[in-house]
Specification:
This protein is α/β, with parallel strands linked by helices. It has five helices and nine strands; from the N terminus they run αβαβαβββαββββα. The protein has helices at about 5-10, 20-35, 50-60, 110-120, 180-185; strands at about 10-15, 40-45, 65-75, 80-90, 100-105, 125-135, 150, 160, 175-180. Bound molecules: inosinic acid and magnesium ion. The site of magnesium ion has 2 residues, from loops.
Length: about 190
């Protein structure tokens, strides 16, 4: 067994099907397009986890926008961030006076996005909002909520549609729960 079938062996449950994700991403894009009508928007992709969500969201949006990318890695183990964030790639464009929407894969403890919003706010954007595909509010360690959220999910470690475990599983088209035996002992 090879490829996606092999990866699927390690998934205990498909939490969000491809169809459900696509439908919700379109709804988010419609809402954002309405909210930002006539504004100059920078859609910011947080690499690597948001890459698939970002690409689908951007294509479903109907307003003028620029895209930019930021590479973030947080120290911690493969399942949990320490909140100490390293920027491996910064944005190329200035966001001063512009409307920025951060596209992120998941808000868990909230530490990464708390750090990031503080950093980006110091660059004086006209506005700054967060659009997360997934939110695990049970795990929150700081006061932050996404402005746009695709799905609220239970406290389970998920992979697919951009989300990884040790760099893998990002290319699964759905979001699934990773079998605990895959990461226990790591
Ligand atoms: P936070 O700083 O704890 O909110 O963590 C955010 C980051 O942790 C995300 O961008 C993901 O990279 C990672 N993360 C948190 N939960 C999961 C999960 O269930 N699957 C995969 N990555 C996750
Ligand atoms: Mg991530």
């Amino acid at each position: 067994m090879w490829g996606k079938e092999f990866m699927a062996q390690n998934i205990s449950e498909v939490l969000l099907t491809e169809e459900r994700i696509q439908k919700r991403v379109k709804e988010l894009a419609d809402q954002i397009s309405r909210d930002y009508q006539g504004k100059e928007v920078v859609l910011l992709c947080i690499l690597k986890g948001a890459c698939i969500f970002f690409a689908d969201l951007a294509r479903a949006m109907t307003i003028h926008m620029q895209m930019d990318f930021m590479g973030i890695s947080s120290y911690g183990d493969a399942q949990k961030t320490s909140g100490i964030v390293r920027i491996s790639k910064d944005m190329d464009t200035s966001i001063t006076g512009r409307h920025v929407i951060i596209a992120e894969d998941i808000m868990d403890s909230g530490l990464t996005l708390t750090y990031l919003t503080q950093l980006l706010s110091s660059r004086n954007p006209a506005s700054l909002r967060i659009c997360c595909l997934l939110d695990k509010p049970e795990r929150r360690e700081c006061e932050i909520t996404p402005d746009y959220c695709g799905f609220i999910i239970p406290n389970k470690f998920v992979v697919g549609y951009g989300l990884d475990y040790c760099g893998e599983y990002r290319n699964l088209p759905y979001v699934g729960v990773l079998k605990p035996e895959v990461y226990s002992g790591s």
